[in-house]
Every structure is written in C-alpha cells, then in structure tokens.
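Most newcomers find our protein records easier to grasp once they have seen one. Sequence and backbone structure share a record, each on its own labelled line. To make this concrete, we reproduce a full record directly below:
***
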Amino acid sequence: MNRFFVLFFGISLVSCASSNAVSPLFGVKNATVILETNNDMPLEPVKPKTEDKAVVLLNQLFNSDEANKKTVLVINNESDCDFTMMILGGKSYTVPVAAKKTESIVVDQGEYVMRSEVCQSPYLAKKTLSENTQVSIKYSVVKSPEKEIAAIQ
C-alpha cells in the first residue's frame, strides 16, 4: 500500500513550481522590458508552501521509524463539487479539496471523525488512522422513476 502512496505522490508533486518577485515595466520607446525588483525582499529565496508540504509528505511516507506517531491521509475527491473536509479528534484539521482533485495531509495517529458536505449532501465517517490511509469521496446521482436520489460512497 505504501508503494502506491509513494508512486502517487511522486507523480503529483512533479508539478511543484516556484515564482520570482519580478514585475515587468513598459515605458521605453523601443518597447524593451525593464525588470523591477523589490529591494525590501530577502536575498535568499523563500520556499513556497507547496514545496514544504511535499517535503513533509514524502518524508512521512519514507519514515519507517516504529516510534513515529504520524500518518498520511489522502483525500481523493471524485465528485463534481468542491468541499472542505473537517477532521476532528485529539487534534483537528481542515482540508479544502477541489472537485476531481486529491489533497493530502500528515496527521497524528488516532481516532477521528471526518465531516463534510459534498454537493449539498452530508458526509460523516469515523476513522481510526494508524497507518497511511486513502479516502475516496464519490458523489453520484441515482435516478429512479419516483425521484432522484443522491448518494455519497
């Protein structure tokens, strides 16, 4: 199962990028671009939050220490709606998940109540997280002759 997580994160984290704080200014007759930099910025580049998250997730996936009390939770949103997953337990976490996207978080091991509203339908689950876990949220509309029934799987 951990090989799946490693492969999944390796592929999804390839697209991490960083940005520079340089703004183009136009105003020269021959339309060349003059680059203006902000002198108040630190000389060392600051790592974007995405890179920090990727490092923490990969370190946790490769951590084989038995004393480690953390685990990776992957939330896969297969619905057409954005939602925010609230993970409530000894420590609480909030994870926004976009439609058709996957989000990950490193959490402390333990029992959690996962609560959200997916496409205006409530989602509530109790999970014991003791190892790396993936949760897939699928929202489907089942049509019957009497009425439409929505279900979260």
Notes: Residues 49-62 form the longest helix (14 residues). Residues 15-35 have pLDDT under 50 and may be disordered.
